[in-house]
Structures
1.
Amino acid sequence: MKKQTNRTHLLKVILVTFAVISPLLAQEEPASKKVRPETGMQTFGSYLDTDYNQKHRPQFHFSSRKNWLNDPNGMMYYDGEYHLFFQHNPVGNNWGNMTWAHAVSKDMVHWEQLPHAILPYGGGSIFSGTGAVDHNNTLGKQKGDTKTLLASFTKTLPKPDRYYQALAYSTDKGRTFELFNEGKAIVPNQGFDRTERDPKLFWHEESKKWVMILWVKRAVTEAHKRGPIAPGKIRFFTSDNLADWEVASDFDRNWVFECMDFVHLPVDGDLNNKKWLLFDASFDYEIGEFDGTTFTTDKKVGLGDYGKNYYAAQTFNNSPDGRTVVIGWMRRSDFNKVGMPFNQQMSFPTTMELRTTPDGIHLFRWPVKEIESLYTKKHEFMNRPVAELADALSGIDAELIDASIEFDPKEAGDIEWTLRGLKVSYWADRQQFIYKADPQVALAAKRGRKRAVPGATRLAAPAVNGKVKLRVLVDRGSIELFANDGAAVSTHFALPDPKNRSISVSGSGSISLVINELKSSWPDEQPDSVIEDAACTYSGTWSSSAEELYSGGTCHYGNELNSAFETEFSGTGISWHGLKNADLGYADVYIDGVLVADNIDCYSKKRATSELFTTTDLSPGKHVIRVVVDGAKNPLSSAHYLVHDYFRIHP
């Protein structure tokens, strides 16, 4: 047992080290080599030795088990599952090698990460896009009663080539995807910008057509000083068959830039009075009317999130209950700087509603009700003098928090609320909540002084019916603020001190305070089992050698063609771990006597990965895996066709 623990620890060290250096090594290679669609990009099997218990791992916000994450992609609901695809680096903890990774959930709170869904091909990467359910079988790919899932994405290409828009589809509920038309363009580059990107795809029922929205040009403003003043551009397309697209209209605005989304929302809950809301990556938005080809508005621009860490949000297509739910990338969540095996996180899912206010129709956002499944303890203090709360709050020891405060600003005046060292203030004269990311900076300012807090986020919060409200979510890596029932929202990366679990309030007057403590949304997982050399049967010529640099254990080197090793295992998946270096060759993999992988290339100029083969879609029960030496890659090598270290079994 100690040997396995040491081996697992050293394996993790090697994987993390590789994640750090791989982007640097990749810079030495041409772009076409970095993105070729090889099985080496399907690295998910190596993730399964990483759990969710690290000191700074978000406990109710989605993060990848390992490696870099950014924009949410392809979000949709089908047959009881919410699908969250996302931009992902499968071989590193920094941005690069963009791939669509994949996770599913039944409630948008408890997520299961699945093998990477769409891998790079043909040079370039797989950039952002959206997903939809092909209810009418427009693409003609449906099998049986299972609807086809569509994924529209940007195919990037190395300079000077121009990006284009492509399509993939799944006939097995998103478990595997096929490229439509071999991944060629369904919408070619429009000629405005080399990097036109991020298609939004949806079915427009009224016109009975598919619609695609594409960002094609960024605004040139006086601030840019790059040329004549000109707005940015979004182009609307329509299609009857998903393969041939016609330009429908253009929408020109200064604010538009990448990752567009477009949703139809009732106003004040009235299904007979719905408006379209268009927003971009920075969550600037406009509200208006759409007739199937053209979007018209009054040109008033709103902002959906005032925080510094919310970007590229997308909504779930085909939501089952009439709600429109959005998730954003919480960018600049620099977990790698504190030693985490993952980097970046998603925001908590929020509903989107349009409500009438004295200033017109505005967007409101609110955490999905499913968060209540994580509640463990509730502390409630109704209309209590602030001075009396110190003792009661001192007895609360909360790590994960969903808390709300309500008060009359005329009575209470200025309030400072501190949750795990993260300070939020209300300035009654400004009618604003103020959050400063640096916990060392006091937000309370003395009367008569200029209230300047550089870098602070300000949320407008005038009294509504005499009351001001704020809801706050605190996780291990974030704080999210929802003022006045979601009229103003801000999302922030934050790393509260793990030892600080205190909550305090200072000010005058009386307040109402509700604090819900949460449990983790992640499963209490046991590590996958490992089958080492002693449990394998060998045939042919093999030699053993301690390979300390790699795993700290014994590796077996195959020295002749048709040498093989095999083992029996029980589970739904298995990965083969070995070496990959300049003297190695090819291997064939059989499971239950069936060839499942042919000519696995074990040759590389650098040691690239511990995982040479993985599968995760086996039926539960007993299986036999057999790996056979198939050939030498290096004609100058007299031995070392391939190396076997161990198998990792996925239950």
2.
Amino acid sequence: MRLPARRWFALACFLAAVPLLFEGLASSSQSEATSVYAVRTTLGPTGPVGSADTNNDNNITASRVTSGSTRVKVVSLSAFIGPTRPGDHFAVAIYADAGGVPGRLLAHSASTAVVGAGWNRAAISPTTLAPNSIYWLAYNSTGSADNLYYARSASGNNVWSGPTAFGSWPNSFPHVAGSGGGSFLIYATLINSHASPIKARATATNKAKIHKPAVPTRGISTTPTRTPADGLQGCRFQRADMPLTVAFCDTFNTPAGTGNRSGDLNGMVWGTSRVNEDVNPGQGIFDAWWPTNRVTCGSSVQTRPEHDVAICNGQMVEATTDGDNFSVLAMYPTQPFDIAGRTGTVVFDVSADSAGPHAAWPSFVYTDQPIPAPYSNHPGIATFARNSFGFSLAASAPCGPGTTGLDEVFGTTDYRPRDLNVVPVDPCLTYRAGALNHFEVRISQDRVEIWGADAGQTRLKELGYIANAGLTLTRGLIWLEDVHYFADKFDSQGTHTFVWDNVGFDGPTLPRDLHLDVNDALTPNGNGSFNLGWYAPDPSNGTPLTLHVPGATHLAQASGALATLNFWPTDTSSLLYRVNGHAWHTLAWPYPDAHTYVWRTIALPLLVSELRAGTNTLDLEATKGGTTVANVDLILIGAQGVPVR
């Protein structure tokens, strides 16, 4: 029997849990058959988490909400559920108001398995809500009796029925057995009721603007992929806003290399860069990179760039030998990721078996420009992006052996780095050989949430969140990185292989950049390493460094152009550059600090009018002292058009 008054229980670990916030999604036209909605929001409390309710099983519990000033449709309901037993299920519904209590049933979900403590979502048939009207969001469950939570605020109203068998949703709300103050943590996800899927119509005008070149697409998808029941297969978006529009998903089905620096990755879709702190122009060492042993499909294979990135058994496998130095191997999809006016979600799987911050670890970075090897300030490497957000998965304490978590979390604004304050929630993940960890990163300008699953598992835990993140970018590129810091000094990860899979993100599907590599120099050094880069002199000490960039095409579709590169300056000098023999351009030292003899990353603006189809030449100099350069690329912004679905 439901008691006439509510029993309130204090939360233990769940007071630290943070609800999933759903922000507005600003729409824009996309490629054919892509669903876009003009307005996206929620109705009902999304936090903070309060106390546990009682007697939720086989009993309908509901709390009152009031709709806003416009007509909207409910597409799903989410409830914050506490610890449950295996096999527990829940269901949710929405009722109209009848004089201050629930009345007519409007819609309900199917029985839905509880996937874990925290927010659980269930879809309902799209249901229109009238403006400025009262509705009741209802919940029923089977199994655990005390598994629905209140919002911490004392405001609101709630009611409960007499015993009602789970799976039964009466057309009229059953007898109200009791009522109380406060709101349950149940919210509805809404879309504008007037919005409808938009299709880009092929006209003579937009056919020219949305050019779709023939590129290899096997293993690459821009359609939503749901999780099979048997584990880590396909891009999974457990925390993404619904309805889901997937802008990018690569499952690495087969090798698709195009002969550039990206190895087996599709070079029309991925760019790859490598920097090592081992640079000594006086000794002829320009970004030294060592051959490595890559563990691929159960065998150890000795290889060197660009074959250190491979695809095997439907996964991307890459390895680095750091040569007792700090090194970064970075990979990025050339498809832009946009978070303007919304919270975007990035997903990826990786074998997150880092031995700690003085070993090898995977990292994630989101940058506003396609600059190579973006990371942070470490020995010999200060490749801060202009505007960015990033984190490393290298925590060794307090997680302990066999576990990992967040270590560095940082952002940059106008090349100025800052550490971001992370509120830990459930900070440690287990890793094990032969298994991948699944990660989902929810990013808006104001808030970032980082979620992960233990190795081989699907249940996500929130590692931590950044409130008031203050990110200064809304569109950019995502980077997956293999980072080393003299990884044999205290551990044995100086040569190490990471495995990646199922990389994707949601949001608008934007025109893809055309990324054209200058292949690495690969000149041997006497110590067994290879130079990846070259030396660009100052104007008084020799002829410019001249590099050739093949493959330029679809120039008419490019909205702009960049030359991107890493450089290792000996002075805070300006970079001088020109293309195809046109006039020299100058980029003054852009950084707020004066650190030299370290790697930097930069994007040099180009005039599309100075480029030509086919091979372009790029000349480089530095005004004082010369500089080492590596990872040189020509970027034609948006020139690949919207990807073919």
3.
Amino acid sequence: MPRDSHARVVRALAERGYNADREAVTLLAGAEDTAAVIDRVAEAAPEDVLVLSADHVDAVLDPSAVSTDSSTANPSVSRGDTVSDSEDVTDRSPGETGGSPQSRPSARASDRSPDEATGSGSAGERMTVSGEFQSTGIGEYGDFLAVFRDRYERLADHLRGRVTHRPAETIREMSGGGDAGLIGMVADIRSTSNGNWLVELEDTTGRFPCLVTDGELAGEVRTLLHDEVIAVEGQLSDDAGILFVDSLYVPDVPRTNSPSTADRPVRAALVSDVHVGSDQFRADAWEAFADWLHTEAAADVEYLLIAGDMVEGIGVYPGQNEELSIVDIYDQYERFSEHLKSVPGDLEIVMIPGNHDAIRLAEPQPAFDERLRTIMRAHDATISANPSTVTIEGVSVLMYHGVSLDELIAELPDDRASYDRPAETMSQLLRKRHLAPQYGGSTRIAPEAEDHMIVDSVPDVFHAGHVHKLGYHRYNGVLSINSSCWQSQTDFQESVNLEPDVGYAPILDLQTLELTVRQFV
């Protein structure tokens, strides 16, 4: 079958008991005599190899090439808890799961239709990723001014329909006692001696004080952070020196928001915080997960989204060196790449960095440099910035590692933000339409020409990690998922009383937006 289609190549390999990564499929499809080359590659492949790589094909096409793939794994699978889109979904903690071992079947790819069997060819039509940027900020005053102006203008656009906005300097010149509306960035929040709240808002013309006396609105004030953009309206005092607030608005996700869905049965696995290189990395759980992806039960899982912290990193927290099994950062990524090879080669993989990865800590985080991209080339994964939006089968997934969740949990009331309810905490970021609202706190923010942390378009799914806790929560049509981790409790986590949820893989049905959670520990 000369110059045959990629799908037929995948089916032919499956008949011989093999899967293959995309590069191998492309090489085979381009061979002069594809059928003959497939037979030769299958005969030459080591006995313990189930996923053929480009190296295996090159070794046949070019005898001087040497095959290096020797990945194997012990199979394991567990049942999952399903979350329906029709449910009133609240933040969840992990449910009990169990399972029985299964062997890895060889017909995973052949169960799909020809157009679906491989990521080659039509992948660009089924998946797009946005978020990459070139860093331009160098820390000068003008850089900070530019990013805050951009934040104000873009978030103000989401609020202009809520109030009749007047600039702060215009309100200052108005007669007392009249109505006024203002869109501003929170410059200061403080309680008064009689239990009210004074919120000072700043726009491009200046600052203006706003007083909140209403008890219900005071509850909303407690959820505000410095530097987020809000709108207020109310009545000016007699001397026009203060605005008594009657209404307060955040950019928020519209209540009428309706998420998009795929037009065919297809699923995605959403994971994060692998932490290869830690002495607490659960390689057994990851390989069990990879084995499950090869089973018939996972035949329609075509996407794998990893939301940061592929490796443990070096010098991230005090005493970390004592908890490392791999002390060289590049060796950590080499090992991560080996584990990534265990998943099926026809998965479309998207990865973004996290705070443990070898990239700048300040957000937004650019994608990995060329050396690390080369190391993590397994299955031709797509590597993007933190945050990024990946649109798969028409479903937009906002991927953010989640460092700012620590700050929200520290600053907001316990009933609004908690490590035990990570996905509900993520919803606070959706309300603010910004992934790192507060500048100068524990979340490092880099000044760029534009604010890449703004949630301009409402996603269908919001995927994060970082806090090592499992949770899912639906807010105004957006499904937020925090996907736990693949690392057992470290001494540092024990010292801060953090008990991680380990080895969970949320599996999202893109056609129904139902969520199934599987555990592999």
4.
Amino acid sequence: MTATWTASLADGAGAKKTPAAPGSDKAKRQNRPAGQQNQTDTVSGNSRPAGQDPERVAAYLDKVFADAIGAISSATKGHRNATLNTQAFALAQLCKGGHLDETTTKDALRAAAKGTELTAHEIEKTIESAFSKAEPRDLPEMPLRPKRNDETPEDPCPDDGYVPADGDDPIGGKAADESAVPLGNGTPPIKDSVRAQPAITLLSAADLWAPLPDPVYVIDEVIREGSIVELIAYGGSAKTWMAIDAAVSVARGIPWLGRFAAERGTVLLLDYENGNYELRRRLQAVARARGLVRPVEGIDALVMPSLYMTAPTFEPTISKLCEGRRLAVVDTLRAASPGVDENDSTMRAGLDGLRRIAETTGCAFLVLAHAKKTSGAKTEVDPREQGRGSSAIYDAADAVLHVRYVEGEPQRVSQTKARQGRRIEPFEVSVTDTANGGVLVQARALTPATVATGTEAQALRVVAQQPGTYTMSGLAKALSGERYQTRLERVRGLIDSGRLVVRDERLHPCLADEAGEDFDDAL
């Protein structure tokens, strides 16, 4: 940058001051609002008047301004719009506080962004958005101080103020409001007025025994309002495609996977895995296959944010973002929780945070998690342990959908937990390319090949009559009609398709088939 950041200010009857060289006294005066341009430092002996030191303020504003413009100019491809948004918001706060001139600041931001790949429309939209969301921010205290003859020049940017170091987010400095929560990834901070004191609400007897309203479903039978639902699958098992289809379905109020009715509302995507390009590609492909006019309104995303579920600022920040939303998707739990051993029960802490957000906002969360690897998907696995990591992850959910992946076959989805009051039959999901370049994600009932007949029907009847009695091998031995190895494969197939479930090495009917409440209560 040259003299761009010191673009001229309106003066008096409309005459324009000429741009000054960056860092000069003239530049410092020009970039300050009119009320501050004529401030002087009057010194009498060793005393100075109370208030801000204009020299220190000028040096501070110069540094903040220059760092912001420099960050925009040097932003790398793929991060330029986010950087512009972040820096524009930081400077807008100072403009709203009366410390910088808005016209000059906007001109400087446009000039800095003009050299990137951003279009003029994108630049203008981002700048105006940042200024519309910004609130006034006060400067750190930089008071006048007594001078001594042997005094060394003091730092114009004090340690107790807001000083963006190299690489720092300018909206996250110490001078920012302590209740301002930086989102990372170019998103402006959100105020959290109750952050210092956690709210404690005691439910009275009247509250506890008040009539319960009927549950409201964001996605019928599958995702209840204000709930936590986990979608567990191997990598490459189409779980992200299913989640994106859920986002598009809720945003438009059309059936999820073409099968489950969705209530229309806004959606938040918290993407920690795909990245900007891949997330956009998948969203656009799903919308194209559905024949939707783009852009599909109602979907917002934080892509690869530096705000993780392990951070103390995560809960208040995401809570604000989820206000008024119907659904939020976390992709994936592991990527959103760095530094936490997924086999440790503390992995649940982030999910408990989502629970509190869901309770206060009514927003439902669809959390994507990885499944354990098994040998050819033929291993007996307890439903609580199908997901990778601690069983506390499973325990924290209201409902769990498990995707069984077999290469070349449709994905089979089984509900292995239902604390919401509704149970769904296992179903298949296919992901296919369409002629118009879209990707269609569809669900259907299990194909005739997966419907139990013969030995499988016999196995289901035996387990229904004596749940919790047989192991996998024991049941195979109790059956008749085929050789033992074939019967054993039939039993494994019923487990893989979700028609039978394993608990404590014993077989039980699946949630949709089992009579009584024992299994549901245990979950």
